[in-house]
Amino acid sequence: MKFDNTTDLDQEVLAFRKSLISNDYNTQEEKDFFADKIFVKKVKKGEFLLREGQFLKASYHLFKGCIREYYLKDGEEKTVEFYTAGDSLTVDVNNAHRLPSAVSWECVSESIISIFTFEVEREMFRRFPRLESMCRMEIEKQYSNYKTEVNNYLSSSPGERYENLMKTKPEIFQFVPQYHIASYLGVKPESLSRIRSRLRTSSTYK
C-alpha cells in the first residue's frame, strides 16, 4: 500500500478521522500531531495492506470492514485470522524491519483504516514518551490475547471454532466467502456445510 499526505474526503472517512483527534485523553499538542501525521483511508475490497514477503512499514487500525490474514502453503491459502472494526494490525516497530512478512493482509470488504507509519511512530515516541509506554503495554496485551486465542483454537474442534466465530465476530459472515471461513476452521468447504447443517439441526431441537 502506498502512503501519502492526503486523506479521503468521503464524509464517513472524515467522521472517523475526527474521532481520532477529539478524545479527552490526549493533550492538544498530541492531537495536533495526530491530525497532521495519521492518514485515514477507505480501502477497496481485494486491496492488500501487506503481502507475504514484504516488509511491514506501518500500523493500521480498522474502523469499518474486514481484513483477512493468510499465508501460502504448497500454493494453498491458509486463513489464520479475520480482523474487524476496532482491531489493530501492528507489530513492535523495533522488530518490523528485521524479517519479511510471513502473512498477507487482504481486505475482504470495503474497509476504512487509519495508517500510522513506523517513521511517524518513532517521531511520536521521541516527542511524547508517555505514549511509547502506553503503546508498549497495548502490544503486550495484544500478544497475550493472541496466545490465548491460539491455545483455544488448537484445543477446540472445527465445530467449536465455528461457534466461537459466530459469537465473537458475527459480522464477518456478511463479508467473508464460506471457503475462507472453512480455511480458518481447518476444514474443507463440504465439511463446513456439514457443521452448519448440524448446528441448525441442533438449534431446532433446543
TrEMBL record:
InterPro entries cross-referenced by the UniProt entry: cNMP-bd_dom_sf, RmlC-like_jellyroll
Protein name: Crp/Fnr family transcriptional regulator
